[in-house]
Amino acid sequence: MPAATDPIDLIAFGAEPDAAWRRAALDAGFAWHSAADIAALHAALQRNGNGVCGVLLDLRDVDDAGALQALAGELAAPRLRSLSVQRSDMATSGALFELALRYCVDSLVEPVSTTVLKLALDSLHRRLRLLGEARQRSAPAGALGAAGGFGGLLGQSRPMLRLFSELEKVAAADVPVFIAGETGVGKELAARAIHELSPRRGQPFVAINCGSIQPHLLQSELFGYEKGAFTGASQRRIGRIEAAAGGTLLLDEIGDLPADAQAGLLRFLQEGRIDRLGGTTSIAVDVRVLSATHVDLEQAQRSGQFRTDLYHRLCVVEIDVPPLRARGDDIVLLADTVLLRHGGAPPRRIVGFTDAALHALRAHDWPGNVRELINRVRRAIVMCEGTRIDAADLGLNAPADGEVAATSLEQVRDQAIGRAINLALERNQHMVVRAADELGVSRATLYRLMERHGIPPESRHRA
Predict the structure, then answer these.
(1) Among candidates 154, 126, 58, which has minimal Cα distance to 413?
(2) Buried b (16+ CB within 10 A) or exposed e, 220-255
């Protein structure tokens, strides 16, 4: 994946643009390439490998079904983003319009002013850079750092950067760690990160959910049993603690551990030895113990539901995984990552979220945290009928005024554009041609902007 300062490939497909396009592309941070036909485009994409790539798509010479189908096949890769340019408004009808709407983040109609051209290329470059960073973060990494996380634990917000720093520190210290956090925030991912960054990384990582096992079975699950220890014990079975020997044991939902299992676990933590059920000798086991729960263990101690001595054995170091609602724009980062993983397959590639969907994502309280976000985005991929996910696809209501407080100049600009489009449509009785003329854009561009901003279909049907 290219570093932040490396140029991103931009392939100019079709007729060679004039020198102004090349200069603007270089200024935006692109490396310029040319492809006169489908075969040349395919070769250029092959040379690019798996890196993110932009395509400057000139639709003037794409005039038959076979060429359209071949071009759509090349543009279907989720690592690509395209910008279309036409000499006229030809892309507003038929298959050309569908191709531009599906694969292009913007459409320009010549002649194009230098300002508009620069804004469009800068926007394309920014989208590709973010796409590349998201692809890098979603891939397995060997350590915390530039990738922004480990094994799916992603984020760029201050709370997550602080968490990553803490994970790096505790990974090197072979002490018990207690991981606190609400349901669905990624406590097991944090535990796996500690294991993979520790000297024990080549040894087993074993997780057991203490709340999902029947209390009368928990002792045998943790400590194992000998043949004949009870009815049905036809052979020896080692427990989860012994299975994690040399590595790391995660006791998830430790707050649900029954009292008798708490006593046995305390003995193991004090002595480093276990007794299998039905056994006559104790067994030494070297394992690092991590624990996690959404339960307030301090309150559980005060109520007598959790042993204080066990708490102090488990909680040598405590780490808190922040809830999703405290992570700002990580919400959008995670939603984009889920979409990249699950929503990019042709022939129904989904290219992003409408502004209404982004507003709803930021405004939602996320009681189910990251687990809820993943489920909502995957549901939206199934329910979405266009190329962009809307708030309704996510099962969320957009804020009452259609907006939330902008946190960047780009959001301010997007909100202003959405308001301008709605007002222009109202003034022109929702006739798209007239609204486009008033706004000074092509009909193709207005259709694209309406989809991006989540303008309802009933506002678009009158051409």
Answers:
(1) 126
(2) bbbbbbbeebeeeeeeebbbbbbbbbebbbbbbbbb
Ranked by mean pLDDT, the top range of 6-20, 104-118, 232-246, 334-348 is: 232-246
Give this prediction's pTM.
Answer: 0.60
Query: How far apart (Å, rounded) are the C-alpha atoms in residues 252 and 211?
Result: 8
Q: Do 8-138 and 327-459 show the same overall fold?
A: no
What 45-48 contacts at long range (C-beta under 8 Å, 24+ apart), as own/partner pairs, is 45/11, 45/74, 45/77, 45/80, 48/9, 48/11
C-alpha 154/C-alpha 341 separation (Å) is 14
Residues in the chain: 463
How far apart are the C-alpha atoms of 438 and 435, rounded to whole Å? 5
Rg (CA), the chain: 28
Alpha-carbon distance of 94 to 75, in angstroms, equals 18
Cβ proximity of 210 and 251 under 8 Å: yes
Helix, strand or coil, per DSSP, at residue 8: strand
> What fold is seen in the domain 8-138?
Rossmann fold (3.40.50)
Domain ranges of the chain: 8-138, 158-321, 327-459
**3-state class (DSSP) for residue 198:** coil
Provide the sign of the torsion angle of the four alpha carbons 352, 356, 361, 367, taken in this order.
negative
pLDDT in tens, 357-375: 888 998 899 999 999 999 9
Nearest to 91 by CA among 53, 40, 57, 41: 57
What is the β-pairing status of strands 205-209 and 224-225?
Answer: unpaired
pLDDT digits (tens, 9 = 90+) for 386-421: 778 889 999 998 665 545 555 555 556 666 777 788
Residue 250 pairs in a beta bridge with: 207, 290
Neighbours of 5 (CB within 10 A): 6
Quote the CATH superfamily of domain 158-321.
P-loop containing nucleotide triphosphate hydrolases (3.40.50.300)
C-alpha count within 13 angstroms, C-beta hemisphere, residue 284? 1
Cβ density class 57-75: b for 16+ within 10 Å, e for less: bbbeebeeeeebebbbebb
Cα dihedral 208, 192, 248, 250 sign: negative
In degrees rounded to 5, what are phi and psi of residue 236? -70, 145
Residue owning tokens 């945290």: 369
Task: Determine the CATH number of domain 327-459.
Answer: 1.10.8.60
